[in-house]
Amino acid sequence: MAGMGGWTKRLFVLVTLAAALAIAGCGEADSSDQTGPPAEAEAGKGSRKDQEGELQGIGSEAPGGIRSAMVGAERAYLRAIARGDTGSACSHLSRTVRSQLGRLAAGRATPAACAESLAALLSGTAAPVARQQARGRISHVRVAGDRGYVIFHAPGAALYVIPMLREAGGWKVAMVGSSVLVPSRSTLNGTG
Q1: Structurally, how many domains does the chain consist of?
Q2: Residue 121 is part of which domain span?
Q3: How many CA atoms lie within 13 A of 39 on its CB side?
Q4: 149 φ, ψ (degrees, to nearest 5)
Q5: Which of 108, 152, 163, 176 is the least crowded, having the fewest Cβ atoms under 10 Å away?
Q6: Which of these, 188, 187, 181, 192, lies nearest to 49 by C-alpha position?
Q7: 121 lies in a domain?
């Protein structure tokens, strides 16, 4: 983490903690959970309001055009996952993520290798979860230079985040799956 700014370190920690869960397909849809705020997310973790408040200290709210571009890229990626179109999904991922996925496919850093690795990593629940997340309600779109993130509400958790990266004048998704920032009540109660 050497060379990372303060906001980048905080986002990295928040996102990394939940990355394994996102790739494995955690956050499965629970139709009984309407993504309402939990009274307390967990002992020591605070409420959804607390988590959102902390995130407000990172970067600034993205202005109209940047916000639209970031949300467009995030939603296009989620819709591609929902369709099972890993080739299209890879086109919305940052170069770093595509390269890492390519290395998983016998060291070949090609678009086909990214799609193959992504298909192998995604769980059977990835498509329905991505479909619900693509219809989620955007809470905030934060940006600091060439980095940012989309925070949204969708079934399965009270609050999700997807990190974004500006590349070649456009925005790309900087992680394979969204991360749960605040779990849903059903998850905390062990029923989700």
Answers
A1: 1
A2: 6-11+22-188
A3: 1
A4: -160, 155
A5: 108
A6: 181
A7: yes
Q: Which residue has the tokens 């605070």?
A: 46
The full DSSP string for 44-55 is TT--HHHHHHHH
Within 8 A by CB and 6+ apart from 92, the residues are 73, 76, 77, 80, 172, 173
Amino acid at 164: M
14 band by pLDDT with thresholds 50, 70 and 90:
very low
Say if 116 falls within a structural domain: yes
* Whole-structure pTM value: 0.70
Lookup: tokens for 20: 């394994």
C-alpha distances (whole Å) from 42 to each of 8, 46, 48, 126, 185 are 24, 6, 10, 25, 10
pLDDT in tens, 52-92: 556 666 789 999 999 999 999 999 999 999 999 999 999 99
Cα–Cα nearest to 92, from 120, 63, 69: 69
The 8-class DSSP code of residue 25 comes to: T
What's the confidence (pLDDT) of residue 110? 62
Residue 64, number of CB atoms within 10 A of its CB: 7
Does 98 or 29 have the greater pLDDT score? 98
